[in-house]
Design a protein that fits this description.
By secondary structure, this protein is α+β, with helices and mostly antiparallel strands. The chain has 4 helices and 7 strands; from the N terminus they run αααβββββαββ. The strands form 3 sheets. Strands 1-2-7 form a 3-stranded antiparallel beta sheet, covered by helices on one side. β1 and β2 form a beta hairpin. It starts with a helix and ends with a strand.
Length: 167
């Protein structure tokens, strides 16, 4: 290690050893005060600590800022979702299936079917996953899509969705 701090540590240790050899009866406080006056180690360590404190303050500030940005992101995502929902409702209400604009094309389409579990106790054992026993939604959905009857579950009608393609 050949950093200025490492060099100063070597100087400090060397001077400390020589002072103790020359003055073996010196108490710790006097030795520490003497070394502080003839080396830069104390000042270097102080600067490192100050720099660490600045870094910690920056971390705290950035965490706060990141939380604010995350909150804003969530608000923007919700706002975009609400606007898309409003556009979908309007298009469905008037029967408009496709809208072409210079910068985007949007259309309505049926969404995917969804699984509705009405009674977990009625679901056959083959559709339960162990540890803890719970419905295997994927296998039930696949079975229902193939036309199989699964007690305690059914497929909900697909909800229309809005597809937007930017140009």
């Amino acid at each position: 290690m050949h950093t200025p701090l490492a060099n100063e540590i070597r100087v400090y240790k060397s001077l400390r050893g020589r002072l103790l050899d020359a003055f073996p009866q010196t108490d710790d406080e006097t030795l520490t005060d003497t070394l502080e006056g003839i080396t830069d180690l104390h000042a270097m360590i102080s600067q490192i600590i100050r720099s660490a404190l600045v870094d910690q303050a920056l971390v705290a500030g950035l965490k706060t800022r990141a939380e604010e940005v995350k909150t804003r992101l969530t608000r923007l995502e919700m706002r975009a979702k609400k606007k898309r929902s409003l556009a979908l409702e309007a298009m469905l209400e008037v029967g408009l299936k496709k809208l072409m604009e210079p910068d985007f094309t949007t259309s309505t389409r049926p969404g995917p079917v969804s699984l509705v579990v009405t009674s977990e106790s009625e679901i056959p054992q083959e559709f339960l996953v162990p540890q803890p026993p719970k419905p295997d939604r994927q296998s039930m959905l696949a079975a229902l899509k193939r036309g199989r009857n699964v007690p305690g579950a059914y497929l909900a009608n697909p909800k229309p969705t809005l597809s937007v393609r930017t140009k």
